[in-house]
Amino acid sequence: MQCGRPLLLRQPFPPDAFDQVILGCVNVIADEMNPARVAALRLGMGEAMTAFTVQINCGSGMQSVDTAYRYIREGVSDLILAGGAESLSHAPLVYNRGAVNWYAKLFGARGFGAKLSALLGFRPAFFKPVIGLERGLTDPITDLNMGQTAELVAHLFHITRRQADEYAAESQQRLAAAQRDGHFAGEVEPAFARDGVVFDHDDGVRPDSTADTLAKLKPAFERPWGKVTAGNSSQITDGASWIVLASDEAVRQYGLTPKAVIVDSEWSALDPSVMGLGPVYCSTAILKRHQLALGDIELWELNEAFAAQVLGCLAAWEDGEFCRDALGLDAPAGRIPRDRLNVDGGAIGVGHPVGASGNRIVLHLVNAMKRLGKKRGVATECIGGGQGGAMLIEAV
Predict the structure, then answer these.
(1) Which residue among 185, 324, 354, 379 is least crowded, i.e. fewest CB within 10 A of its CB?
(2) DSSP string of 224-252?
(3) Catalytic-role residue among 3, 25, 58, 323
(4) 201 and 111: one domain?
């Protein structure tokens, strides 16, 4: 709500002018099972406002934009509010299956004898809950958590621990510089806690990060030799993002000034054990369709799930064998210069609220293109479960 209200107040049309609301969210809480509808009502968009929630793991926020884009392209809608939201701090603790079965038996028991029998079946282990977030970040097919898939990508493309730490430190420093220089002005809204405390910037930034300080951290998933640590991974955090999408007719009707246009989008799938390579598949597909090369893209927002995963994607595009066998290219796709990639940092510093991140990187790409005078950009991300999403954006 705290980012939606200022956005709607800035618009030259009332909140109920939208045709629908689409929101990406992964860990939907039981109290608000369709958070898109809850948000629409709380934002004063009217009881007649249709709203639905989409979920494709880490790509949910981008899926909301893509769904809205397609509704508008097909002429079904003219004005859509598309967003993403996640509160990982509210991820639940879940009782194990044995405890669930015991509770069911207890509450279903009829009569004193049956209830006593059920009570006698209690075991202390029932009070040991499962961490819902930990299970949610573990792929049920491969039984690898997301950090382990990043380790596998690092192994396949020979990404060293030093390289991952250097990338993470650079990302933190870029984010700190962007915050200092006001590059998030008009994009990041202050948030207010119930006790009145104001949060006017993402506080996960660590501007003093260096490869040497990050090297002191222990591997998080594959000790002792793993490459992935808490310092070179995205942070577990909360966040939300909204984007207004409009047709040509809505732009004319309300006198809007568009920042960019969505040219195309692409979703790809691959082996879940190397899900971090998803951006390579979907981005390459969209570029091939438009007869573009990597060098034709002036800015990239590649979600920083893990430093090793981002570096793995960059290495994959330079690997001739991978490009031939996996992407169907005749030669290596090429190299993405670092001054075109995540120019203001990314999820290593900002955090990765999974339902919101895809929306945020699209929004920031548009704003960064406008600020830097760039014409063409790609926002892309890996998706838990072995998928990837990409959007080709052109500045107006």
Answers:
(1) 185
(2) TT-S--STTBPPP-EEEEEEEEE-HHHHH
(3) 58
(4) no
